[in-house]
Amino acid sequence: MNINSYSFGKINISDKEYNSDLIIFPDSIHNNWWRQRGHLLQIEDLEMVIEYDPELLIIGTGKYGKMKVPNRLLNKLNNLGISVEVYKTNKAIEVYKKNNIKDVVCALHLTC
Fold first, then answer.
1. What is the distance in angstroms between the CA of the first residue and the CA of the last residue of the chain?
2. Which residues on neighbouring strands pair with residue 105, listed in sequence order?
3. What is the pTM assigned to this prediction?
4. Using CA atoms in the order 5, 3, 49, 64, what is the torsion angle rounded to 10 degrees?
5. pLDDT over threshold 90, residue 101
6. Rounded to an integer, what distance in angstroms lies between the CA atom of residue 6 and that of residue 11?
7. Reduced to 3 states, what is the DSSP secondary structure of residue 32?
8. Looking at domain 21-108, which CATH architecture does it have?
9. Alpha carbon of 27 to those of 23, 32, 52, 66, 110: distances in Å?
């Protein structure tokens, strides 16, 4: 997926604009990604990612990094064989665009 641009609350991917949090899979986009506890990421919020079982998950925590990713969640994902990198959303997009791993998923919080 080609990310063309990102600004607070808005992302353009392959010439289509999205205005809600989303998960980018190699061949599809799950938009309107909602989390059970808003700014606190939980394992249940990533069920479709776990089912997909990527080599790498890149998480964007928002423009200002307000979404928290607990260490216990990172440990659980690592124990499942999923490497995880966590950044503010701008940086997560940069890393995603430069990544050469074919089997990568990117979960992005687009606002705060």
1. 23
2. 57
3. 0.96
4. -20
5. no
6. 4
7. coil
8. 3-Layer(aba) Sandwich (3.40)
9. 11, 17, 11, 28, 20
Enter the DSSP assignment of 68. Answer: B
What type of residue is 9?
G
Question: Cα–Cα distance between 46 and 76 in angstroms, integer?
Answer: 11
Which residue bears the tokens 């990102």? 6
Eight-state DSSP code of residue 24: E
pLDDT band at 110 (very low <50, low <70, confident <90, very high): very high
Spatial contact of 31 and 20, defined as CB atoms under 8 Å apart: yes
pLDDT (tens digit, 9 = 90+) per residue, 42-100?
999 999 999 999 999 999 999 999 999 999 999 999 999 999 999 999 999 999 999 98
At 40, list the tokens: 């606190």
Q: Is 27 helix (H, G, I), strand (E, B) or coil?
A: coil
| β-bridge mates for residue 106, sequence order | 24, 58
The residue type found at 55 is E
